[in-house]
Inverse folding.
């Protein structure tokens, strides 16, 4: 079974072609403005296409076969992910138009976190805003966390519902997730990916009154402040660069220590929520490749907790979920 996986960001696309879940080819498209999707492979040879879609809101707690209803549901969620969902939809609809009989499956970044309960996903603002505007914690990086959870269970020969781990997905975007009994129990990213850990260019957790204070004192619009918090903050805001490798080369201890401290704070809050933790798992570009961050973050961790580095593979997880849906359709 040949499955093409499209992992669309806001301006780039990573793709992988799988044959019976074995990777055949992969690549990245850096400029999507003049990109022809049929340059990737021969679509006539495919059995299905799997898509990463950033935001599934509360409508999707698992992968879904693309239908016209699913497309409209994704479109309705564009206000919650204005940079990502439109590009996801662009390629879903293009493929549907050109190859109407080719099955497509959407895998949502938020879906794995739909097991988080109301205590964890509800913000302490008037409840009417959750009911009317769906303002709540959604969490992101869910596809990566789900892959790591399954892979950990496989490697340790454990039932997935016995897995208790903290997954630190650390890259330019960064998140921490507590997986309890094999399910997402708490996570750092919130209504948008801006909340949580300090990241490459995102601020993470800050006092919300800073937004209006910056508007008033610097004559900035709300959109300008959000732009600052998303693209000019985090590591870049503290030391002028967003790449952790360059931060280490410059020996900027303030940026480095702040980055690690905020991860430690989340680990501490998660440890008190679970009786026994199996492991803390680092993944993502920084998590997998930066020993200095891992050492600093774990300097006070109990020796009984295993510290692991595990490469993530979002595309393989998307392909696996697509494969499972296709098999169900054939039953």
């Amino acid at each position: 079974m040949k499955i093409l996986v499209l992992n669309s960001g806001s301006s780039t696309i990573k793709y992988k072609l799988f044959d019976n879940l074995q990777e055949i080819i992969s690549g990245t498209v850096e400029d999507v403005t003049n990109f022809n999707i049929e340059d990737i492979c021969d679509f006539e040879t495919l059995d299905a296409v799997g898509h990463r879609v950033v935001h599934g809101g509360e409508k999707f707690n698992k992968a879904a076969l693309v239908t016209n209803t699913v497309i409209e549901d994704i479109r309705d969620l564009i206000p919650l992910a204005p940079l990502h969902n439109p590009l996801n939809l662009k390629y879903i609809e293009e493929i549907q138009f050109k190859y109407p009989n080719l099955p497509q499956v959407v895998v949502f970044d938020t879906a794995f976190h739909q097991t988080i309960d109301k205590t964890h996903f509800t913000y302490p603002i008037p409840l009417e805003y959750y009911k009317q505007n769906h303002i709540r914690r959604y969490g992101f990086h869910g596809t990566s966390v789900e892959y790591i959870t399954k892979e950990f269970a496989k490697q340790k020969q454990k039932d997935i519902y016995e897995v208790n781990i903290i997954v630190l997905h650390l890259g330019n975007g960064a998140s921490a997730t507590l997986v309890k009994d094999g399910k997402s129990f708490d996570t750092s990213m919130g209504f948008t990916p801006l909340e949580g850990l300090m990241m490459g260019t995102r601020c993470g957790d800050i006092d919300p009154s800073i937004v209006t204070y910056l508007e008033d004192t610097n004559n900035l619009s709300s959109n300008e402040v959000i732009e600052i918090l998303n693209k000019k903050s985090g590591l870049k805001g503290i030391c002028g660069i967003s790449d952790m490798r360059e931060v280490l080369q410059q020996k900027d201890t303030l940026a480095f220590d702040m980055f690690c401290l905020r991860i430690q704070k989340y680990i501490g809050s998660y440890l008190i929520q679970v009786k026994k933790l199996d492991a803390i798992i680092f993944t993502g570009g920084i998590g997998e490749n930066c020993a200095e961050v891992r050492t600093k973050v774990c300097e006070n961790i109990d020796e009984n907790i295993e510290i692991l580095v595990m490469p993530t593979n979002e595309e393989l997880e998307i392909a696996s979920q697509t494969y499972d849906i296709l098999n169900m359709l054939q039953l």
